[in-house]
Protein backbone atom coordinates (compact mmCIF):
# COMPACT_ATOMS: atom_id res chain seq x y z
CA UNK A 1 0.00 0.00 0.00
CA UNK A 2 1.23 3.46 -0.93
CA UNK A 3 1.42 6.29 1.70
CA UNK A 4 1.21 9.99 0.83
CA UNK A 5 3.16 12.46 3.01
CA UNK A 6 1.59 15.80 4.06
CA UNK A 7 3.77 18.54 2.51
CA UNK A 8 3.90 20.76 5.70
CA UNK A 9 4.99 17.81 7.82
CA UNK A 10 7.66 16.96 5.27
CA UNK A 11 8.93 20.54 5.31
CA UNK A 12 9.23 20.57 9.10
CA UNK A 13 10.96 17.20 9.08
CA UNK A 14 13.56 18.44 6.62
CA UNK A 15 14.06 21.59 8.66
CA UNK A 16 14.46 19.44 11.73
CA UNK A 17 17.32 17.56 10.10
CA UNK A 18 19.05 20.85 9.29
CA UNK A 19 18.43 22.40 12.72
CA UNK A 20 19.14 19.27 14.72
CA UNK A 21 22.85 19.92 14.84
CA UNK A 22 22.34 23.48 16.11
CA UNK A 23 19.36 23.51 18.43
CA UNK A 24 17.71 20.11 18.53
CA UNK A 25 14.50 19.18 16.86
CA UNK A 26 11.50 21.21 17.99
CA UNK A 27 8.06 19.82 18.56
CA UNK A 28 5.90 19.96 15.52
CA UNK A 29 3.61 22.62 17.02
CA UNK A 30 6.33 25.15 18.10
CA UNK A 31 6.98 27.77 15.44
CA UNK A 32 8.94 30.88 16.52
CA UNK A 33 8.88 34.30 14.98
CA UNK A 34 11.91 35.65 13.25
CA UNK A 35 14.88 36.23 15.56
CA UNK A 36 13.77 33.67 18.18
CA UNK A 37 14.79 30.07 18.60
CA UNK A 38 13.24 27.17 20.47
CA UNK A 39 14.94 26.20 23.75
CA UNK A 40 13.24 23.70 26.07
CA UNK A 41 10.05 23.90 24.01
CA UNK A 42 9.98 27.70 24.41
CA UNK A 43 10.78 30.49 22.00
CA UNK A 44 13.61 32.62 23.40
CA UNK A 45 15.80 35.46 22.26
CA UNK A 46 19.33 34.16 22.76
CA UNK A 47 20.62 37.70 22.33
CA UNK A 48 19.31 38.74 25.78
CA UNK A 49 18.18 35.64 27.70
CA UNK A 50 20.51 34.94 30.69
CA UNK A 51 19.47 31.25 30.70
CA UNK A 52 20.15 30.81 26.95
CA UNK A 53 22.73 33.44 26.08
CA UNK A 54 24.00 33.00 22.50
CA UNK A 55 22.77 29.41 22.42
CA UNK A 56 20.34 27.15 24.22
CA UNK A 57 21.63 26.11 27.65
CA UNK A 58 24.36 28.73 27.93
CA UNK A 59 23.61 30.32 31.34
CA UNK A 60 25.19 33.54 32.59
CA UNK A 61 26.78 33.65 36.04
CA UNK A 62 25.08 35.36 39.00
CA UNK A 63 25.17 39.12 38.56
CA UNK A 64 25.80 38.90 34.80
CA UNK A 65 23.47 40.02 32.04
CA UNK A 66 23.14 38.78 28.48
CA UNK A 67 23.86 41.44 25.87
CA UNK A 68 24.02 40.71 22.12
CA UNK A 69 24.33 37.00 22.82
CA UNK A 70 27.27 37.31 25.24
CA UNK A 71 27.35 37.20 29.05
CA UNK A 72 28.85 40.16 30.81
CA UNK A 73 28.57 42.42 33.88
CA UNK A 74 25.93 45.10 34.30
CA UNK A 75 26.85 48.73 33.80
CA UNK A 76 28.62 50.06 36.88
CA UNK A 77 30.03 46.65 37.84
CA UNK A 78 32.97 44.62 36.64
CA UNK A 79 34.06 41.02 36.73
CA UNK A 80 36.32 40.12 39.65
CA UNK A 81 37.14 36.48 40.32
CA UNK A 82 34.32 35.31 38.09
CA UNK A 83 31.67 37.47 39.79
CA UNK A 84 30.26 40.87 38.95
CA UNK A 85 30.91 43.39 41.73
CA UNK A 86 30.44 47.10 42.32
CA UNK A 87 33.94 48.28 43.08
CA UNK A 88 32.51 51.52 44.50
CA UNK A 89 31.02 49.65 47.49
CA UNK A 90 32.48 46.10 47.59
CA UNK A 91 34.83 45.68 50.59
CA UNK A 92 36.68 42.82 48.83
CA UNK A 93 37.22 44.77 45.61
CA UNK A 94 37.20 48.43 46.63
CA UNK A 95 38.18 50.64 43.70
CA UNK A 96 39.68 47.70 41.80
CA UNK A 97 39.54 43.91 41.67
CA UNK A 98 41.39 42.37 44.61
CA UNK A 99 41.75 45.63 46.55
CA UNK A 100 40.25 44.53 49.87
CA UNK A 101 39.45 46.82 52.81
CA UNK A 102 40.78 46.07 56.28
CA UNK A 103 38.56 44.47 58.92
CA UNK A 104 35.98 46.95 60.26
CA UNK A 105 36.24 49.22 57.22
CA UNK A 106 33.59 49.97 54.62
CA UNK A 107 33.97 50.74 50.93
CA UNK A 108 32.53 54.14 50.07
CA UNK A 109 32.99 55.78 46.66
CA UNK A 110 35.72 53.25 45.80
CA UNK A 111 37.68 54.19 48.94
CA UNK A 112 38.16 52.19 52.13
CA UNK A 113 36.99 54.09 55.23
CA UNK A 114 36.43 53.27 58.88
CA UNK A 115 33.07 51.55 59.36
CA UNK A 116 30.23 52.40 61.76
CA UNK A 117 29.40 50.61 64.98
CA UNK A 118 26.51 48.17 64.98
CA UNK A 119 23.17 49.96 64.87
CA UNK A 120 24.53 53.11 63.23
CA UNK A 121 24.03 54.33 59.67
CA UNK A 122 26.75 55.78 57.46
CA UNK A 123 25.26 58.87 55.87
CA UNK A 124 27.24 61.47 53.90
CA UNK A 125 30.52 60.05 55.13
CA UNK A 126 29.57 60.08 58.83
CA UNK A 127 28.22 57.50 61.27
CA UNK A 128 24.79 58.52 62.59
CA UNK A 129 22.16 56.97 64.84
CA UNK A 130 19.09 56.59 62.65
CA UNK A 131 17.00 56.14 65.80
CA UNK A 132 17.64 59.68 67.04
CA UNK A 133 19.26 61.76 64.26
CA UNK A 134 16.74 64.35 63.00
CA UNK A 135 18.65 64.67 59.68
CA UNK A 136 18.69 60.92 59.02
CA UNK A 137 15.67 59.62 60.94
CA UNK A 138 15.22 55.93 60.15
CA UNK A 139 17.13 56.29 56.87
CA UNK A 140 19.83 58.48 55.37
CA UNK A 141 18.44 61.82 54.24
CA UNK A 142 15.08 61.53 56.00
CA UNK A 143 14.95 64.99 57.63
CA UNK A 144 12.41 65.63 60.40
CA UNK A 145 10.23 68.76 60.04
CA UNK A 146 10.85 71.81 62.20
CA UNK A 147 9.76 71.39 65.85
CA UNK A 148 10.01 67.60 65.62
CA UNK A 149 12.61 65.19 66.98
CA UNK A 150 13.65 61.71 65.88
CA UNK A 151 12.44 59.01 68.27
CA UNK A 152 12.91 55.31 67.57
CA UNK A 153 13.56 56.11 63.92
CA UNK A 154 10.36 58.16 63.51
CA UNK A 155 9.84 61.90 63.36
CA UNK A 156 7.56 63.01 66.21
CA UNK A 157 6.94 65.88 68.59
CA UNK A 158 8.42 65.59 72.08
CA UNK A 159 5.40 67.09 73.83
CA UNK A 160 1.77 67.44 72.72
CA UNK A 161 -0.88 69.70 74.29
CA UNK A 162 -4.65 69.40 73.93
CA UNK A 163 -6.67 72.58 73.31
CA UNK A 164 -10.09 71.68 74.70
CA UNK A 165 -12.05 74.76 73.63
CA UNK A 166 -10.35 74.86 70.21
CA UNK A 167 -10.69 71.14 69.44
CA UNK A 168 -7.03 70.91 68.47
CA UNK A 169 -3.69 69.32 69.28
CA UNK A 170 -0.39 71.14 69.08
CA UNK A 171 3.08 69.61 69.27
CA UNK A 172 6.36 71.12 70.34
CA UNK A 173 10.01 70.21 70.52
CA UNK A 174 11.57 69.91 73.95
CA UNK A 175 14.69 71.97 74.51
CA UNK A 176 14.04 74.48 71.74
CA UNK A 177 10.41 74.83 72.88
CA UNK A 178 9.43 75.39 69.26
CA UNK A 179 5.73 74.98 68.46
CA UNK A 180 4.39 73.08 65.47
CA UNK A 181 1.12 73.81 63.65
CA UNK A 182 -2.18 73.15 65.40
CA UNK A 183 -4.22 70.22 64.10
CA UNK A 184 -7.95 69.56 64.37
CA UNK A 185 -8.52 66.55 66.60
CA UNK A 186 -11.70 65.20 68.19
CA UNK A 187 -14.62 67.11 69.62
CA UNK A 188 -13.80 67.31 73.32
CA UNK A 189 -10.39 65.90 74.22
CA UNK A 190 -10.12 65.86 77.98
CA UNK A 191 -7.05 63.69 78.66
CA UNK A 192 -3.90 62.68 76.78
CA UNK A 193 -1.36 59.87 76.93
CA UNK A 194 1.23 58.44 74.55
CA UNK A 195 2.51 55.03 73.55
CA UNK A 196 4.93 53.81 70.90
CA UNK A 197 4.92 57.03 68.89
CA UNK A 198 1.14 57.53 69.06
CA UNK A 199 -0.88 60.12 70.96
CA UNK A 200 -4.00 58.84 72.75
CA UNK A 201 -6.84 61.30 73.36
CA UNK A 202 -9.95 60.64 75.46
CA UNK A 203 -12.84 62.39 73.68
CA UNK A 204 -15.64 63.08 76.18
CA UNK A 205 -18.07 64.30 73.52
CA UNK A 206 -18.02 61.14 71.42
CA UNK A 207 -17.01 58.61 74.07
CA UNK A 208 -13.97 57.53 72.04
CA UNK A 209 -10.31 56.89 72.68
CA UNK A 210 -8.69 58.48 69.65
CA UNK A 211 -5.22 57.84 68.25
CA UNK A 212 -2.91 59.88 66.05
CA UNK A 213 0.74 59.49 65.01
CA UNK A 214 3.03 61.65 67.12
CA UNK A 215 4.25 63.47 64.01
CA UNK A 216 1.18 64.28 61.91
CA UNK A 217 -1.18 64.52 64.95
CA UNK A 218 -4.31 65.38 62.99
CA UNK A 219 -4.22 62.14 60.97
CA UNK A 220 -6.70 60.06 62.94
CA UNK A 221 -5.80 56.40 62.63
CA UNK A 222 -7.98 54.52 65.09
CA UNK A 223 -11.02 54.91 67.32
CA UNK A 224 -11.90 52.69 70.26
CA UNK A 225 -15.22 52.96 72.06
CA UNK A 226 -15.15 54.09 75.68
CA UNK A 227 -18.66 52.85 76.29
CA UNK A 228 -21.24 55.49 77.10
CA UNK A 229 -21.22 58.71 75.07
CA UNK A 230 -21.32 61.96 77.10
CA UNK A 231 -19.25 60.50 79.89
CA UNK A 232 -16.07 62.04 81.23
CA UNK A 233 -13.01 59.91 80.43
CA UNK A 234 -10.56 62.09 82.34
CA UNK A 235 -7.40 60.02 82.81
CA UNK A 236 -5.44 57.46 80.78
CA UNK A 237 -2.75 55.14 82.11
CA UNK A 238 -0.54 53.34 79.57
CA UNK A 239 0.88 50.14 81.07
CA UNK A 240 1.95 47.93 78.11
CA UNK A 241 0.35 45.86 76.80
CA UNK A 242 -2.66 47.49 78.49
CA UNK A 243 -4.29 50.90 78.60
CA UNK A 244 -6.54 51.90 81.52
CA UNK A 245 -9.15 54.68 81.24
CA UNK A 246 -11.11 56.27 84.10
CA UNK A 247 -14.56 57.83 83.53
CA UNK A 248 -15.69 60.13 86.37
CA UNK A 249 -19.31 60.42 85.20
CA UNK A 250 -19.99 56.75 84.53
CA UNK A 251 -17.81 55.68 87.50
CA UNK A 252 -15.97 53.11 85.42
CA UNK A 253 -12.53 51.69 84.85
CA UNK A 254 -12.03 50.40 81.31
CA UNK A 255 -9.18 48.09 80.30
CA UNK A 256 -7.93 47.89 76.71
CA UNK A 257 -5.20 45.64 75.36
CA UNK A 258 -2.96 45.87 72.33
CA UNK A 259 -3.64 42.51 70.79
CA UNK A 260 -6.10 43.12 67.97
CA UNK A 261 -5.53 43.75 64.29
CA UNK A 262 -4.83 47.45 63.97
CA UNK A 263 -6.99 49.41 61.55
CA UNK A 264 -5.52 52.55 60.06
CA UNK A 265 -2.05 51.56 61.30
CA UNK A 266 -2.94 52.35 64.91
CA UNK A 267 -2.05 50.46 68.07
CA UNK A 268 -4.79 47.86 67.68
CA UNK A 269 -6.44 48.37 71.08
CA UNK A 270 -9.42 46.29 72.13
CA UNK A 271 -11.49 46.41 75.34
CA UNK A 272 -10.82 43.34 77.48
CA UNK A 273 -12.21 44.32 80.89
CA UNK A 274 -14.32 46.83 82.79
CA UNK A 275 -15.19 47.62 86.40
CA UNK A 276 -17.87 49.87 87.88
CA UNK A 277 -16.50 51.53 91.02
CA UNK A 278 -19.94 52.32 92.38
CA UNK A 279 -22.50 55.13 92.08
CA UNK A 280 -21.45 58.66 93.05
CA UNK A 281 -17.79 57.73 93.43
CA UNK A 282 -16.55 60.01 90.59
CA UNK A 283 -13.11 58.43 90.03
CA UNK A 284 -10.57 61.01 88.84
CA UNK A 285 -7.23 59.39 88.02
CA UNK A 286 -5.16 56.25 88.40
CA UNK A 287 -1.64 55.02 89.12
CA UNK A 288 -0.18 51.54 89.43
CA UNK A 289 1.81 50.13 92.34
CA UNK A 290 2.52 46.41 92.04
CA UNK A 291 -0.66 44.60 91.03
CA UNK A 292 -2.92 47.34 92.35
CA UNK A 293 -4.36 50.45 90.76
CA UNK A 294 -4.83 53.40 93.11
CA UNK A 295 -7.86 55.46 92.04
CA UNK A 296 -8.83 58.72 93.81
CA UNK A 297 -12.60 58.99 94.40
CA UNK A 298 -13.79 62.60 94.43
CA UNK A 299 -17.44 61.84 95.17
CA UNK A 300 -20.50 63.88 94.20
CA UNK A 301 -22.36 66.72 95.88
CA UNK A 302 -25.70 64.99 95.27
CA UNK A 303 -24.64 62.25 97.69
CA UNK A 304 -22.89 64.60 100.13
CA UNK A 305 -19.60 63.04 99.01
CA UNK A 306 -20.32 59.91 101.07
CA UNK A 307 -18.73 57.71 98.39
CA UNK A 308 -15.80 60.03 97.74
CA UNK A 309 -12.91 61.49 99.74
CA UNK A 310 -11.17 58.14 99.42
CA UNK A 311 -8.82 56.07 97.27
CA UNK A 312 -10.00 52.80 95.76
CA UNK A 313 -7.52 49.95 95.29
CA UNK A 314 -8.19 47.64 92.35
CA UNK A 315 -6.42 44.33 91.73
CA UNK A 316 -5.28 44.00 88.10
CA UNK A 317 -3.21 40.83 88.42
CA UNK A 318 -5.67 39.65 85.76
CA UNK A 319 -6.42 42.82 83.75
CA UNK A 320 -9.40 41.16 82.08
CA UNK A 321 -11.02 40.78 85.50
CA UNK A 322 -10.24 43.95 87.50
CA UNK A 323 -11.39 43.56 91.10
CA UNK A 324 -11.92 46.23 93.74
CA UNK A 325 -9.98 45.22 96.85
CA UNK A 326 -10.73 47.99 99.34
CA UNK A 327 -11.09 51.73 99.83
CA UNK A 328 -8.75 53.93 101.86
CA UNK A 329 -10.53 56.84 103.54
CA UNK A 330 -8.96 60.30 103.50
CA UNK A 331 -11.39 61.93 105.91
CA UNK A 332 -9.20 61.38 108.96
CA UNK A 333 -6.42 63.67 107.74
CA UNK A 334 -5.73 67.05 109.34
CA UNK A 335 -6.55 69.38 106.44
CA UNK A 336 -5.66 72.54 108.41
CA UNK A 337 -8.86 74.42 107.51
CA UNK A 338 -8.73 78.21 107.41
CA UNK A 339 -11.97 78.59 109.39
CA UNK A 340 -14.59 76.58 111.19
CA UNK A 341 -16.68 76.01 108.05
CA UNK A 342 -14.43 73.07 107.33
CA UNK A 343 -13.08 71.47 104.18
CA UNK A 344 -12.91 68.13 102.37
CA UNK A 345 -9.89 66.34 100.83
CA UNK A 346 -11.63 65.82 97.44
CA UNK A 347 -8.70 63.94 95.79
CA UNK A 348 -7.92 64.79 92.19
CA UNK A 349 -4.71 63.12 90.99
CA UNK A 350 -2.30 60.33 91.92
CA UNK A 351 1.23 59.12 91.20
CA UNK A 352 3.37 56.21 92.38
CA UNK A 353 7.05 56.12 93.30
CA UNK A 354 9.19 53.09 94.11
CA UNK A 355 8.01 53.09 97.72
CA UNK A 356 4.80 55.11 98.11
CA UNK A 357 1.67 56.43 96.43
CA UNK A 358 0.89 60.17 96.54
CA UNK A 359 -2.54 61.73 96.01
CA UNK A 360 -3.15 65.44 95.29
CA UNK A 361 -5.86 66.88 97.57
CA UNK A 362 -7.80 69.94 96.43
CA UNK A 363 -8.91 70.69 100.02
CA UNK A 364 -12.09 72.56 99.10
CA UNK A 365 -15.26 73.60 100.87
CA UNK A 366 -18.25 72.45 98.76
CA UNK A 367 -20.56 74.68 100.81
CA UNK A 368 -18.63 77.75 99.66
CA UNK A 369 -18.69 77.32 95.86
CA UNK A 370 -15.87 74.76 96.09
CA UNK A 371 -13.32 77.37 97.08
CA UNK A 372 -10.15 76.33 98.93
CA UNK A 373 -10.50 76.36 102.71
CA UNK A 374 -7.11 74.91 103.48
CA UNK A 375 -3.68 74.61 101.89
CA UNK A 376 -3.09 72.36 98.94
CA UNK A 377 -1.97 69.00 100.25
CA UNK A 378 -0.67 65.57 99.35
CA UNK A 379 -1.84 62.33 100.89
CA UNK A 380 1.04 59.86 101.31
CA UNK A 381 -0.02 56.20 101.21
CA UNK A 382 2.11 53.32 102.40
CA UNK A 383 1.13 50.45 100.07
CA UNK A 384 2.32 47.83 102.55
CA UNK A 385 0.06 48.93 105.41
CA UNK A 386 -2.49 51.25 103.78
CA UNK A 387 -1.53 53.98 106.26
CA UNK A 388 -2.24 57.52 105.06
CA UNK A 389 -0.52 60.75 106.16
CA UNK A 390 -0.69 64.35 104.93
CA UNK A 391 1.92 66.72 103.46
CA UNK A 392 1.13 70.44 103.70
CA UNK A 393 2.28 72.26 100.54
CA UNK A 394 1.86 75.72 102.04
CA UNK A 395 -1.12 78.03 101.54
CA UNK A 396 0.98 80.89 100.18
CA UNK A 397 2.35 78.86 97.30
CA UNK A 398 -0.35 76.22 96.71
CA UNK A 399 -4.11 76.13 96.89
CA UNK A 400 -6.26 73.47 95.25
CA UNK A 401 -3.57 70.86 94.46
CA UNK A 402 -4.69 69.41 91.14
CA UNK A 403 -1.97 67.28 89.59
CA UNK A 404 1.07 65.40 90.88
CA UNK A 405 3.81 63.48 89.09
CA UNK A 406 7.07 61.87 90.17
CA UNK A 407 10.18 63.36 88.55
CA UNK A 408 13.13 61.23 89.55
CA UNK A 409 13.19 61.08 93.34
CA UNK A 410 11.15 64.29 93.62
CA UNK A 411 7.47 65.16 93.22
CA UNK A 412 6.09 68.04 91.18
CA UNK A 413 2.63 69.30 92.11
CA UNK A 414 0.52 71.62 89.95
CA UNK A 415 -1.68 73.90 92.07
CA UNK A 416 -4.85 75.17 90.40
CA UNK A 417 -5.12 77.92 92.98
CA UNK A 418 -8.12 79.92 94.10
CA UNK A 419 -9.70 81.42 91.00
CA UNK A 420 -12.76 83.65 90.80
CA UNK A 421 -14.67 83.27 87.55
CA UNK A 422 -17.06 85.51 85.65
CA UNK A 423 -19.67 82.87 84.88
CA UNK A 424 -21.92 85.32 83.06
CA UNK A 425 -19.32 86.08 80.39
CA UNK A 426 -17.89 82.76 79.40
CA UNK A 427 -16.40 81.48 82.65
CA UNK A 428 -13.29 83.63 82.43
CA UNK A 429 -10.99 83.96 85.46
CA UNK A 430 -11.07 87.49 86.91
CA UNK A 431 -8.66 86.78 89.78
CA UNK A 432 -6.45 83.91 90.89
CA UNK A 433 -3.93 83.31 93.65
CA UNK A 434 -1.51 80.58 94.70
CA UNK A 435 -1.46 78.88 91.30
CA UNK A 436 1.72 77.29 89.95
CA UNK A 437 4.11 74.49 90.90
CA UNK A 438 5.54 73.07 94.12
CA UNK A 439 8.56 70.76 94.24
CA UNK A 440 8.63 68.14 97.01
CA UNK A 441 11.71 66.20 98.07
CA UNK A 442 11.79 63.65 100.88
CA UNK A 443 8.16 64.57 101.60
CA UNK A 444 9.07 68.23 102.23
CA UNK A 445 8.23 71.18 99.91
CA UNK A 446 11.58 72.63 98.81
CA UNK A 447 10.75 75.00 95.95
CA UNK A 448 7.81 76.69 94.26
CA UNK A 449 6.96 78.54 91.05
CA UNK A 450 4.11 81.04 90.75
CA UNK A 451 2.31 81.54 87.45
CA UNK A 452 2.48 85.08 86.13
CA UNK A 453 0.20 86.09 83.24
CA UNK A 454 2.66 88.68 81.94
CA UNK A 455 0.15 91.52 82.22
CA UNK A 456 -1.51 93.59 84.89
CA UNK A 457 -4.55 91.74 86.28
CA UNK A 458 -7.66 93.72 85.49
CA UNK A 459 -6.09 95.56 82.58
CA UNK A 460 -7.99 95.39 79.25
CA UNK A 461 -7.09 92.22 77.38
CA UNK A 462 -5.12 90.72 80.26
CA UNK A 463 -5.76 86.96 80.41
CA UNK A 464 -4.89 85.44 83.79
CA UNK A 465 -3.19 82.06 83.98
CA UNK A 466 -4.59 79.05 85.84
CA UNK A 467 -2.45 75.92 86.19
CA UNK A 468 -3.69 72.62 84.83
CA UNK A 469 -1.90 69.34 84.10
CA UNK A 470 1.68 69.06 82.91
CA UNK A 471 4.15 66.71 81.25
CA UNK A 472 7.88 66.26 81.84
CA UNK A 473 10.35 66.03 78.96
CA UNK A 474 14.14 66.41 79.00
CA UNK A 475 14.18 67.64 82.58
CA UNK A 476 11.54 70.33 82.18
CA UNK A 477 7.88 70.65 83.15
CA UNK A 478 5.48 71.75 80.40
CA UNK A 479 2.58 73.21 82.36
CA UNK A 480 -0.78 73.86 80.69
CA UNK A 481 -2.87 76.97 81.38
CA UNK A 482 -6.65 76.40 81.41
CA UNK A 483 -7.64 80.06 81.15
CA UNK A 484 -5.39 81.56 78.46
CA UNK A 485 -4.20 78.46 76.58
CA UNK A 486 -0.52 79.00 77.35
CA UNK A 487 2.18 76.43 78.13
CA UNK A 488 4.82 77.46 80.70
CA UNK A 489 8.19 75.69 80.72
CA UNK A 490 9.98 75.19 84.05
CA UNK A 491 13.24 73.27 84.46
CA UNK A 492 13.45 70.82 87.39
CA UNK A 493 16.75 70.62 89.22
CA UNK A 494 17.79 69.05 92.50
CA UNK A 495 15.52 70.99 94.83
CA UNK A 496 15.02 73.82 92.33
CA UNK A 497 12.46 75.08 89.82
CA UNK A 498 13.77 77.48 87.16
CA UNK A 499 11.52 79.26 84.69
CA UNK A 500 12.56 78.85 81.05
CA UNK A 501 9.46 80.13 79.24
CA UNK A 502 7.18 82.48 81.19
CA UNK A 503 6.86 85.93 82.70
CA UNK A 504 8.06 85.59 86.28
CA UNK A 505 11.83 86.06 85.93
CA UNK A 506 13.94 88.31 83.68
CA UNK A 507 16.29 85.41 83.01
CA UNK A 508 13.60 83.39 81.19
CA UNK A 509 14.49 82.49 77.61
CA UNK A 510 11.18 83.79 76.36
CA UNK A 511 7.48 84.21 77.13
CA UNK A 512 5.13 81.33 77.78
CA UNK A 513 4.20 79.41 74.64
CA UNK A 514 0.95 80.42 72.95
CA UNK A 515 -0.06 76.81 72.45
CA UNK A 516 -3.82 77.36 72.25
CA UNK A 517 -4.54 81.00 71.32
CA UNK A 518 -7.82 82.42 72.53
CA UNK A 519 -10.51 82.10 69.88
CA UNK A 520 -12.30 85.46 69.35
CA UNK A 521 -15.58 83.57 69.60
CA UNK A 522 -14.67 82.24 73.07
CA UNK A 523 -13.38 84.27 76.00
CA UNK A 524 -11.11 81.53 77.37
CA UNK A 525 -8.83 78.81 76.02
CA UNK A 526 -8.44 75.57 77.94
CA UNK A 527 -5.04 73.98 77.41
CA UNK A 528 -6.39 71.03 79.32
CA UNK A 529 -3.67 68.37 79.23
CA UNK A 530 -0.12 67.72 78.06
CA UNK A 531 1.68 64.48 77.29
CA UNK A 532 5.33 63.67 76.61
CA UNK A 533 6.18 61.13 73.90
CA UNK A 534 8.73 58.57 75.02
From TrEMBL:
Record field: transmembrane: none
Keyword Signal included in the entry's annotation: yes
SUPFAM superfamilies, per database record: 3-carboxy-cis,cis-mucoante lactonizing enzyme (SSF75011)
Keywords of the record: Signal
InterPro entries assigned: Stig-like
Name of the protein described by the UniProt record: Stigma-specific protein, Stig1
